[in-house]
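@channel sequence for tomorrow's demo:
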Amino acid sequence: MPTKKAKNGDDLQSAINSKGYTWEAAPTELSALSLEEQKAYLGLEVNKQELQATERAIAAAEELSSLSAAAFSAPPSVDWRNNGGNFVTPVKNQASCGSCVSFGTLATIEARFNIKCKTPGQNRDYAEAYLFYCGCTNCCVPGWNFAPALDFCKNKGILQESQFPYTPGNQPCKAGLPTPTLKIDSWAAIMPVADRKNALATKGPLVAGLAVYQDFMSYKSGVYQHVSGSLIGYHAVSCIGYDDVHRCWICKNSWGPGWGDSGFFKMGYGQSMDTQFAMYDPNVTCPGPPPNPCEQYLPALRNVLAVAQTNPQLKRCLRYYVCGKLPRPVCTTQHITIARAVVAILQKCPQYRAPWCAALG
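structure tokens (generated this afternoon):
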């Protein structure tokens, strides 16, 4: 049976208004594409059995959640673009490759590191190409799934965008890449809506999935609710907040800033994001500052100071040759060798010169 053609812009907006919905439709770069071209911008690979199993798990989890007080603990709204600062990194564009799982996962992890490290406004830029092309391999069609992507971030790690820049299209894992030093600690699937809100409020964005219908390609602003058009496929995004007043999830997409509300969208409660997909919670630890290579020389500098305090001739030589203090003394070959070694260290680590000479006296 041929696919039903999506409504044009005016017809779609009339249909939205007639249902009492509040979102705005407009022509976009994606709505102008053919159906097959639109499918290339998705990339969450799920089957009917997985969707049904997840729906049952969510329903069971909601029943248990209703017995607890968790539903009342989260604030009425959260948006990590404006929550003591902007912790969400800029919108990217996956283009015509089904790499949305990689983009949604790393968008979430970038924000999580900003939150954990208390660095609002920092443009952490992690390599979707490394995650997708090294973790999945030739997966532009049919795409990928959450668990293997998050496992890769946990077990293999994450590289910087500059180390493997993203270009759309199947390609092998790049040769000669450095070993990643950045990883997530763990991850978990969250089923109940109340638990999702608690995680969003207390920890940060979550990785999310949704069913995409043709009308979603024309989304411009407001709270999206499906109106018309057939199912195109499934998609992964980063959920960066929620709003109980407008009854919606707030999400960052990976179709560039020209689509939607500057690349973001709001999805009404009760849509597929709630009923068919869990949300995923990656846990991170803020990495400490890089090791100071000069610290390796501190024991040697301390040892020389200790010897100099009991050897006046060595002390005079060090004061002259290292710290430039007159008069010039007579020094043995051994004393000159020690002074040269200290000078070499302080040339590499000039921040130690003033305190070392002050301690020498």
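heads up for whoever presents: Residues 293-360 form one domain.
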